[in-house]
């Protein structure tokens, strides 16, 4: 190399995350074009350092694949609910044995835990578990024996049982229900003046005609016009399956909204006010005129957002906000948003940022029901790896320690809510990237601890004495002089690191990494003696199979003559 012209110094510090979107030589100093199993732990971070992630620590092993985990507390008693195979466990005890082998959904309403598994709809109060029996509605009131009356409550999708109430006239013995062809294998129950009557002694019924015949005509009520005969009967339908087959449940406006029924892919249902056991047969909405599936339902920004997969009509994102109707009370009519990009992954309210994953990556809905909605891209820095991940459409989302974890089989992409940058005129999250040995099947956060389920085991991400491989690479640094050859100052590299074993590598001009040295029991700084000549770009890699922290690295070089071939 010709006579050296001047020294240049670059500092790699205040690390922000990875950048898989650019060539390694175009990445900014504080990002990495290639990093694995590193993150910024804000509880320990010192000046923007990055460190090895925690490892998995086994908590419990079950018989079969785990499809869901939930932590439920009632009456000061804590319950760890685990859906493994076809069984539902409360810690070690099997409390239900007919679960579907499908990812389960949990929610708590009025201190009761509800569980859905695409086949069953269960409730558990910490002592007793059962299928949600369904509120029994009184569908017609003020009926005369021969019929008529006033429509009172809607049929409940969750039960085939309903009631009619009548005003007796003192002479009629035949009382006609508000529907025919009732179940013949269910004996109706009858009350007259709140006294339950006996079948075959006091009454019989005709299922085909929907008729109850009394041995003695019920007497008129003591108060004129007051209902005094109540008949409870059953008419079997397939209604309950509409809710049981749903795979999504979200609470919004003190109601539970359900979707994800594969037989009704564009349908949304909700329960009645404060009662998850009552879903009116009229409380449903069709999202769009096509059958494109609903992929996620998310509450936030003053609305319930319904995120559908792409379709030819470009009607993919709908929102519902409560409106008081004079005849029907509170309704949630769907409104098509101004967004046409569809959801193919999942959606979430991430710290009041309504996000979903399209075929382009992570999108954010900007605006609410009072403004025009637009989307803003959030994952430009990782899209090249994210979109190529096998299982992208079946991702799971979890919030933990201020991060959004995008879990795709054994891969995890972490969006940092505290670090947003502008990339291409759009606000973007900073990201980190992890890999686990096995596929993650379920996840939950409890008291700040992240629980991850893999196969039939429950783990916590708490093991600090790890043996996982982790590394951080700097950019392929051209020192802002791509046209010049450079030579490293062999004493001009200082790295602030901490760890029991840290390997340092370097490579020039995208050749193979060469090991510089292995450093042990480091607390403070190291001085890797990097002796490289006549290079265009240089890249440093810090790597270990033991936990380590990288606080900063400073590298000095001399700039010489023009690059030659």
Structural summary, described in words:
There is one protein chain. This protein has 2 helices and 50 strands. The chain is elongated, with a radius of gyration of 32 Å. The strands form 12 sheets. Strands 1, 4, 5, 6, 46, 47, 48, 49 and 50 form a 9-stranded antiparallel β-sheet that branches. The protein folds into 4 domains: 6-54 and 469-562, Jelly Rolls; 59-131, no CATH class; 161-234, no CATH class; 239-463, YVTN repeat-like/Quinoprotein amine dehydrogenase (Methylamine Dehydrogenase, Chain H), CATH 2.130.10. With 565 residues, it is mainly beta.
Set out the fold topology:
Elements: E1 6-13, E2 17-18, E3 31-32, E4 35-36, E5 38-39, E6 50-52, E7 55-61, E8 66-74, E9 77-84, E10 87-90, E11 93-96, E12 105-109, E13 112-116, E14 121-124, E15 129-131, E16 138-143, E17 150-151, E18 161-166, E19 174-176, E20 189-192, E21 195-196, E22 203-206, E23 211-214, E24 229-234, H1 239-244, E25 248-252, E26 255-259, E27 267-270, E28 284-286, E29 294-300, E30 303-308, E31 317-320, E32 323-325, E33 329-331, E34 334-336, E35 347-350, E36 353-358, E37 361-366, E38 374-377, H2 383-386, E39 396-400, E40 403-408, E41 411-423, E42 426-435, E43 442-446, E44 449-454, E45 457-463, E46 470-473, E47 484-508, E48 514-526, E49 538-544, E50 548-562
Parallel strand pairs: 2-3, 16-18
Antiparallel strand pairs: 1-50, 4-46, 5-6, 6-50, 7-45, 8-9, 9-10, 10-11, 12-13, 13-14, 14-15, 16-17, 18-24, 19-23, 20-21, 20-24, 22-23, 25-26, 26-27, 27-28, 29-30, 30-31, 31-34, 32-33, 35-36, 36-37, 37-38, 39-40, 40-41, 41-42, 43-44, 44-45, 46-49, 47-48, 47-49, 47-50
